[in-house]
Amino acid sequence: MFFYIINMERKATFSQEVSAVKKITLFIGMVLLLTAMYYLYKYQLGAISFFILSIIFFSLAKKEFSSKSTKKFKKPSR
Length: 78
Fold this sequence. Notes:
- The chain is mostly helical and about 80 residues long.
- About 85% of the residues lie in helices and about 0% in strands.
- The longest helix is centred in the first third of the chain and has 41 residues, at about 1-40.
């Protein structure tokens, strides 16, 4: 029983560490993307940044839609 509790605490801290690393990575990625878009607009290449944003938003929408559709059509377990 004691080892099970320690193992559960490790899982919780590991998932918290992963989420913290994920947040930091997303923040750094957004900063890099914003600076790249700024320079594209500076040299009058703003259409490229809109294309990149459309790809990002399409992939996010596809992931969200696929996760909802799998939850909707799962068979109920008895």
